[in-house]
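COURSE: Structural Biology Practicum
ASSIGNMENT: Worksheet 4, Part C
STUDENT ID: 0417
INSTRUCTIONS: Below are two proteins. For each, the amino acid sequence is given first, followed by its structure token string. Answer the questions at the end about the second protein only.

PROTEIN I
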Amino acid sequence: MPEDPEATRAYQRAYREENREKLNAYHRAYRRKNGKKLRQQGRERRRKNHEKKLKQEKEYREKNADKLREQGQEWREKNREHLREVQGAWRHNNPETVRQSQKKYSDSHQDEIRTKARVYDRAHRAEKRAYQQAYDARHPEKVEVRKEGKRRWNTKNHDKIRAQERARQKANLGRYVAKNAARRAQKNGAPVNDLTHDQWLEIQEAQDHRCYYCGKRRKGKLTQDHITPLSKGGAHTLHNVIAACSSCNSRKGTRKPPIPVQPLLLTVAPAKKRKAS
């Protein structure tokens, strides 16, 4: 055998190539004869190097995070159908585990789930409405079933619904007042109906929460007075609304303001967007 290391390696490679079948047969026979011993040695080696292997894998993942992420995405894209089948089969075979996992996630992420749902509903409102209308047109019998189920649920949970509605109104009283005022303006045929709750708050702030007519401070109790009444073609908009106490508002009625009025012309809060006709 040559003494030069490079020549030695070349000689060994050539010997292995020349005697490949013979060497493979020898290794197979050795593994069959010493299988138990080899398995035991393998277990001991893995146990001994477990921590070292975990550390090496962690370092590799940290060093090649972007590369591994790209490889994972490519693999998932390439095997999307296979993944869907495997995951669907697993969920079908483990319904209780899936249910518990979903409940655990929803319980710990309630606010996040509600926020995402509100954002999605707001962004896809027209699309969802169109889909629901098309579905109802295809399945009229299911519409009646759904309505009947909703009626039964409402009847059974009447007190609960009332309590929730009262709590919601109490927590959002100003917005409910603004909504009712906008509905009243629409009913009266107001030419412009774009006053928002935030603008109404700014009007009250600008008047220091005082009645425009009598000057009394009525924080949280002021009402919207339309300079030109709605019944006479007035608009429900920033330039036609001032804050007044209920007494002065009732006394004025549908007449002209008893004193000269300068409404708030500009607010930080934007007006309500008008629907395209």
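PROTEIN II
(use this one for the questions)
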Amino acid sequence: MKCQPHLLRQPRPHRRHPPAHGADAASIYNSNTRFDALNRLVTTNRAGNLTSARAYDRADRLTEYSTYSSPGTLRDRQVSSYNANGWLLQANSHNSSNNLTQQTNYNYSDSYDALSFPGAGFSPSPSRGG
């Protein structure tokens, strides 16, 4: 096949390329973040679409973290709860359907953690190292 020089030419620097996939070319890489009054990260956006959201309790601990794969489509959600000492008590993972997929409970007084996968029929007995 004969080389076609017009296919090898680079575009001139002053030429504007059309937007990719019909989006505004300037917003493809445009991302922004929003912080609350206490300077905690609350949301992140890319190209004008929500990509993650966070919630905090009064002690500034992260209680919920959600990510989104496309506008309004939940990818996953993490929910955490804490004891009176501020230690993590429970961490729950939810899938895109908001169904609980993993639950981790922390028991600091007995120094063991229990991990379970709801709906999977698997809930191991906590074991203590020794």
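ANSWER KEY EXCERPT:
Q1: The CA atoms of residues 13 and 95 lie 45 Å apart.
Q2: The first strand starts at residue 31 and ends at 35.
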